[in-house]
Amino acid sequence: MAEKLLRVALKEDRAPQESSSPVESHELCLAQQLEMDASWLPAYHLEPEHVDVIRAFVSSPEKDEERKLKFLTSIAVLFRAATYNSLCQGLDLFCQRYKLAENIKVLLEEEPRDQLHTAVWRSAMFAMTEMSFVEAVLEGKEIGLLQACFSGIFLLPPKEEMQDLKPFLYFTTMKGMDTMLVALVLNSPTSRVNEKMQSIFQMLLTFTTSERASVRERAVGRMRVLSFLLANYSSLKADPNEERHASCAEMQMPIIGQLLGHLLLLLSFKEEETGHLALDALCLLFQFKYQQHCATLTEENTQLQGDWETETTSLRTSPSATHIIESFAEYLQPSERSDIVRVFIEAMTDSSTFDKEAARNVLDVVRGNPDLWLVDVPKITSCIHKTLGCIKSVPARQSVESLMVSMADKCPQEVVTTLLQVAPGGDSTALALWEAMFSVPQTVRNILKELLSQLWDLKSRLFCTHLEDYCLVRLAMLASRDLGDRAFAATYLDFRFLKEERPAMLSLVLRAIMTLSERDEMARKMKVILPDLMRVLLFGYKAATTKALLVFRTIMAQLERREASHIAVQMAEFLLPLLDDELSQLRESSISLFRDLMMMAVGNDKREMKNVVRLGLLPLFFRLSDQTQSVAKLKQDRRRAQEFLIQSLSYLKDAQASLREAAVRFIALQTLAEDREPSIRSLVAQTVIIILSSSREQPRPRWTLRALCCR
Prior knowledge:
Radius of gyration: 39 Å
Number of helices: 38
Strand content: under 5%
Structural class: mainly alpha
Distance between the termini: 110 Å
């Protein structure tokens, strides 16, 4: 009767004020009286003093440290006595009326975060432990309380930095947290265990990415405790009110993949206790997954214990992430494998605190067995697209892009569909991924074929938002058909997709052409695009220009010399401004192609080529001192520099005015005599001396311009 009346009072507190009958008013008055003395609570007669302490604390504005500790201790004592004596009736109403969970949370949030001087944290967690034995008392409030505990205790400074810290207080505080976690899990109904453990693991994972070693260590220590519970739940759970308990096979933990991924990455912190705790947790989780696997078998169940011990010993003997992930592989669900892959992709970001090399090694394992690991292609593709923009490290970026290529080889349709769906028009990350896939011969053919197939799907027309003028699709139509030389040329002249002037898209198209042209047969067909390739140089886009030069060189190598001669002269003239470009890669490509083109001229084209080469002598000479070694190596040996200078003197008396002008420019160094750099002034002086002495002493060199051009 008393409990019923208190429920009426609680309901009245939450409901709007309305007129009531005399009978209802009498019941409400009685309920309020019962509430005031708390004698209605069955457990009150066990611990009346502690009940009074609780009620007094809640109603009093005075909340010093002594009162806080008495309040928390009284909660623990009351609930322990009630549970032991089976007098838990009404405790949920008592907690609700006096907002015990809310008051505990406030106390935790008010505790200092820079020191651990009091036992408030420890007492609060002991109180929560005892409260968890009573059903529904903490329902809906556990997450907030746990978040307050984790945020407060994990973010404390390292033990070594906390002044006057009592080791026993720190030890018992951490022990109190472990006890609380065990109680919260084991005292939950079986139907809610999965959900509760999932929530706690999720909260703990957020602390494993901290830059502070002490935070990671504290979080991983609690993960180890929960992993032990997970591996041994069926034997630890002892609820007499339930007829049966969940077996390993029935324990579903969707977060297991993320959990394994983070723990594998935490192994790299070998100098910390974190790495050892992570290994312990991994071994316990391996036991859990192994038991789940064996629960579905019959004949092998008898060998479970022996096999599990052997596997665990192997994990501890060789605790590398690659070895452990290979051991786990066959016992994981496809979704769990995909989650592990996503964790390692995200670990590549610049902001990640994890070891990038360890992450790359695991992704190498994944690429080595794509059928096993790359199952959920849409999920992994979306993760790569979301993450790649946050990866600036070249090795890390290459590793993630290689993973994308592996998926594209395995499932081109899913990759293309997903990427088109998740990437908005003009998305730079998506363009980078297309370019990575277009860099591999077999992959680019499969992807272009799939793009063409999806274009004809009139129900979706996904490309309308991604490629405004379909330039890639036009390339796909050209590359996917088995066209002869004439048909190929006619089709290209209809499309002319190299007229695309958007830098990113033009660069992407050229990347695809670069890869496609690696096949000699395709390169021969592509001679029709040579005029448009030369026009690309006029756009001034350096990335596109570099690719265009490489394509040009590949196509020219497939042409007969007589067919290539006139084109070579034209292209060599286009290259002159690029021989001295500020971008080293572009300089190298230009000089390399220029060297090849000089050798292609035949017949009347030779004279024109000589004129072009003369214009290129000066930049080529100065590039002998290029700090980029690959550029310098493309010219003649450095020791010939002085010989070139001496040779230039003979051209001052040449019959051709244009050649005399080039020679004057070549040796006119007086303007550098006052250069700010001492090394430059010294070099100018030495050069003038060489010129003057050579003009008096040296005979006309036997080298001819033709010989120079052919060297």
